[in-house]
Specification:
The protein is α/β, with parallel strands linked by helices and 224 residues long. It has a domain at 5-109 and 193-217: Rossmann fold (3-Layer(aba) Sandwich). It is built from 10 helices and 4 strands, in the order αααβαβαβααααβα. It has helices at 5-12, 17-25, 29-47, 60-70, 88-99, 119-125, 133-144, 148-161, 176-192, 208-217, and strands at 52-56, 77-81, 104-107, 197-199. A 4-stranded parallel beta sheet has the order 3-2-1-4. The radius of gyration is 20 Å and the shape is globular. The termini are close together.
Length: 224
């Protein structure tokens, strides 16, 4: 999948992707909507509307994304990850969207062996989902490293990037909660349904990882 020429031109006008991103963020809402719809159409034209789905959480970002996509393809598939930890209001909203005619399929955190992943089971198996995913991954890698070199690399990473996390190295912390409850079940269902591309709605400002991903991939990084 490639950028539409308009967005490529905008980014190339700047010396860095950071400047390009700030410019795009300051555009009028109508222009942002047009750019987003161009990217959506490009995705659908590349993969076909029967092999593209929306990763739908029922939250504000994915709801805005759903509105944009459905204005172009009303019956596009939405995969909703029902982790068992959604607010009742979120479940009610998703059901309301179904009644309004949106094509929403619920996905549950079922393990490959058919058992259900629960939050309690994940904590007992892998640890608590504390801090950012980057910190939690670093701590888990340090605690469960198979070689001294891997352990040292994890320690060096935390010391350099997140020194405030060093006092938590002995705690059972992991970033696998989201992976087990949401990401893996969604990917598994997408493969079963022979989907080729996921359209997701995320904000750069929500994390350094998302910002770094945009600098690396631009607006097209949801393929698998």
């Amino acid at each position: 999948m490639v950028f539409k020429n308009e967005e490529i031109t905008i980014i190339r006008e700047f010396q860095s992707r950071k400047e390009g991103l700030r410019y795009l963020q300051k555009l009028p809402l109508e222009h942002k909507i047009d750019l987003s719809k161009n990217l959506i159409l490009n995705c659908i034209e590349t993969f076909g509307d029967q092999q593209v789905y929306i990763s739908f959480s029922g939250g504000k970002d994915s709801t805005v994304l759903s509105s944009l996509v459905c204005s172009l393809k009303p019956n596009i598939l939405h995969l909703f990850s029902d982790t068992g930890w959604e607010y009742p209001e979120t479940i009610s909203f998703v059901e309301e969207e179904r009644r309004r005619g949106k094509n929403i399929v619920s996905v549950y955190p079922i393990c490959r062996d058919g058992s259900i992943w629960t939050f309690e089971r994940i904590v007992a198996t892998y640890g608590y989902p504390l801090f950012s995913k980057a910190i939690a991954n670093g701590i888990r890698t340090y605690r469960h490293a198979k070689t001294p070199i891997t352990k040292q690399h994890a320690l060096d990473y935390l010391e350099h990037m997140y020194p405030q996390a060093l006092s938590y190295l002995d705690y059972n912390i992991s970033a696998l909660c989201c992976e087990k409850l949401k990401k893996s079940p969604l990917k598994r269902m997408a493969r079963q349904m022979q989907m080729q591309c996921s359209i997701i709605g995320t904000l750069e400002e929500e994390s350094q990882i998302r910002k770094r991903d945009w600098f690396t991939y631009g607006s097209n990084m949801a393929m698998f």
